Amino acid sequence: MVEAIRDAMDVSMQRDENVVVFGEDVGYFGGVFRCTQGLQQKFGTSRCFDTPISELGIVGVAVGMAAYGLRPCVEIQFADYMYPGYDQIVSEVARLRYRSNGEFTAPLVVRMPTGGGIFGGQTHSQSPEALFVHVAGLKTVVPSNPYDAKGLLIAAIEDNDPVIFLEPKRLYNGPFDGHHDRPVTPWSRHAQGEVPDGHYTVPLGKAAIRREGAAVTVLAYGTMVFVAEAAAAETGIDAEVIDLRTLLPYDLETIVASVQKTGRCVIVHEATLTGGYGAELAALVQEHCFYSLEAPIARVTGWDTPYPHAQEWDYFPGPARVGRALKAVMEA
Amino acid sequence: MSDAGRLSFHVPAPAVRPGGTPDFSDVKIPPAGEVRRPEVDVAAEEIRDLAYSIIRVLNRAGEAIGPWAGRLSKDELLEGLRHMMTLRAFDARMLMAQRQGKTSFYMQHMGEEAVSCAFRKALAPGDMNFPTYRQAGLLIAGGYPMAKMMAQIYSNELDPLKGRQLPIMYSSREHGFFSISGNLATQFVQAVGWAMASAMKRDTKIAAGWIGDGSTAESDFHAALVFASTYKAPVVLNIVNNQWAISTFQGIARGGSGTFAARGLGFGMPALRVDGNDYLAVHAVAKWAVERARRNLGPTLIEYVTYRVGAHSTSDDPTAYRPKTESDAWPLGDPVLRLKQHLIRLGVWSEERHKQAEAEILATVIETQREAEAHGTLHSGPHPSARDMFEGVYEAMPPHLRRQRQQAGV
């Protein structure tokens, strides 16, 4: 997936000379996860460069550049480091088009690795997507595989609105179903690891059905898509797994069609429970599918604690927990 | 316990509070014409002293003297006076309009007119300001129509921002005036980004960032200086030190640094301090910094030493925290009166012409106001629709907003 993300930036930088890439360790070295490796060598230091350690500064200068007419695609090294730049995102990036009545816009992408599963502790594991979805004016994307990552990132860079692009870091090197004790599967042995050369997009705002089923709908995104698939396979429950891909704008049609068909819904995310994106999804399902529901909506999420280190797998909503929720919803 | 004894906690306080006698003896003011004018390609370390002095051109007798003088023609000076007088008249009328309930909020410039009016004349078309809320002189001196400013203040049917923004948070790309956020300091770093982009694209335009004395305490200020200095961005970074951040005196933000300009020294940036109530000095220093940026010599930090004569905003009452007569004691005088005196001394202006100009300007402002009010004020007459509220959040309205607009029934 790292290569797919890099390729998306490479393709975008070739097609549009206004696309620029920068962040901490992003230039010469190519990023701590290597997502920008080779871009500076290929496009020069005016197009891809290292910045001071200042997330506020990275996002802040990106706003000015976007207002000038560039299309910055910046990297925050970990989503956990985003908070110093959060005011620039919320108060500036998100509202610039609105407050200037379209006179100034900020077509920029803020990429950041998200989620746990790598023993990163509380400062390298967070999933702050709800903090962005809550802000009017932003689009928030979470890809789950290399094909989508490339197509969604190109679409995000070409979008005229600001896009928060959260990359589940546990998926960088292969799909991960939550069985941390099993050997890592590389993307080369997975269907969605196939990434076409050149330019293509995956439209923002469209979900994908990863596994068709008739008994229960599972709403997931990022790493949890694979966890949900594993839970369905292991419990033998005929679950329909929907990969939301874009959290805002969300694909209500796909969600509603599926829940109306199955009559049951389980929502899975790695982020903490309370006030999480799952709460919004549950509200939407309730509003639009109430008369189709045959069981209460269930949520399987990280616990409402900071992301722990040694207890990572107790925190992580793995296939066993998702499986229990599936069974409970089926028996309700 | 060690020999040093117990610690004590230090909180800076202004010399005088309400009831006291105003005292600005701590503001060290060198005579006009005294501070040297270095070449624009001077190394920052050679002019460190300029961060601690005050560049002044007009002396108490109204003469323009010293190395920073002689850069504006009589016509340009007369135009400058007219801009400042227009801004003052505009402020007076809009303050009154706010008190009459025609708008919710207003912020005036009294005492600070020279800073934005003179700075604007140092820029070229295409340059971009990232202003705060007290630089409307950039618009007035740039020829932006007052009628549009009023439409924005009234949030009426002609409001270019469709009623979405607090009064005076103008935006005009065409006039090199970036949309004002209203959050403090956030735009200082954006100015640096805009300037970086101009350099990345091998353009010729430069940017100007604006911030107040109090807001220099924000992290955004420091991020702006780090990025500007690292990438030698073609940007002029302006600190307007008007002594007061609402009720907080400038010593709270400044700490022990002596001056705000001195903040630039650690970043290896030329840092100049200028008499902000001296139209000629502001213009000369702005021109110097703009030329540096234009010649790709990098950023300049400028501190304008001025005084906020009025309240912070219409929601503020300064008599609660500073002596009523403090503004009379401000040692750098009034920018309008000082330029007027200079023009009289030059023989191109007189008390009569000044009075006449004042009356003309006021009549123009009142006439413009009358026309603006015909298109509505905040609580009466035509104004942007509730439907407009849902527009422009995104380039295209996403489905969830369409549903909400439907629910709102607009």
- Share of residues in strands of chain B: 5-15%
Number of helices of chain B: 13
What's the structural domain tally of chain B? 1
> Can you identify the CATH superfamily of chain B?
Thiamin diphosphate (ThDP)-binding fold, Pyr/PP domains
* Cα radius of gyration of chain A in angstroms: 19 Å
Low-confidence stretches of chain B: none
The number of E-state strands of chain B comes to 7
CATH C-level name of the largest domain in chain A: Alpha Beta
Mean pLDDT of chain B: 96
- The SSE string of chain A, one letter per element, is HEHEHEHHEHEHEEEHEEHEHEHH
CATH C-level class of chain B is Alpha Beta
Describe the oligomeric state of these chains in a short phrase.
heterodimer
Mean pLDDT of chain A: 97
Gyration radius of chain B, rounded: 22 Å
- Overall number of structural domains of chain A: 2
| Alpha carbon gap, first and last residue of chain A | 38 Å
Strand order, main sheet of chain B: write it out: 1-2-3-7-6
The count of strands of chain A amounts to 12
Shape of chain B: globular
Brief characterization of the structure:
With 332 residues, chain A is α/β, with parallel strands linked by helices. Chain A contains twelve helices and twelve strands. In chain A, helix 8 packs across helix 12 (319-331).
Summarize the structure in words.
The complex is a heterodimer of chains A (about 325) and B (about 400). Chain A contains twelve helices and twelve strands. Chain A has helices at about 1-15, 40-45, 55-70, 85-95, 95-100, 130-135, 145-160, 225-235, 250-260, 275-290, 310-315, 320-330, and strands spanning about 20-25, 50, 70-75, 110-115, 140, 165-170, 210, 215-220, 240-245, 245-250, 265-270, 300. In chain A, helix 1 (about 1-15) runs parallel beside helix 7 (about 145-160) and helix 3 packs parallel to helix 4. Chain A is globular. The model of chain A has no long low-confidence stretch (mean pLDDT about 95). Chain B is α/β, with parallel strands linked by helices. Chain B has one domain: 3-Layer(aba) Sandwich (Rossmann fold), CATH 3.40.50. Helix content of chain B is about 35%, strand content about 10%. Chain B has helices at about 75-100, 115-120, 135-140, 145-155, 185-200, 220-230, 250-255, 280-295, 325-330, 335-345, 350-375, 385-390, 400-410; strands spanning about 130, 205-210, 235-240, 245, 250, 270-275, 300-305. In chain B, helix 2 (about 115-120) packs across helix 8, helix 4 (about 145-155) crosses helix 11 and helix 5 packs parallel to helix 6. The chains are: A alpha/beta (about 325), B alpha/beta (about 400). At the A-B interface, helix 3, helix 4 and helix 5 of A face helix 5 and helix 6 of B.
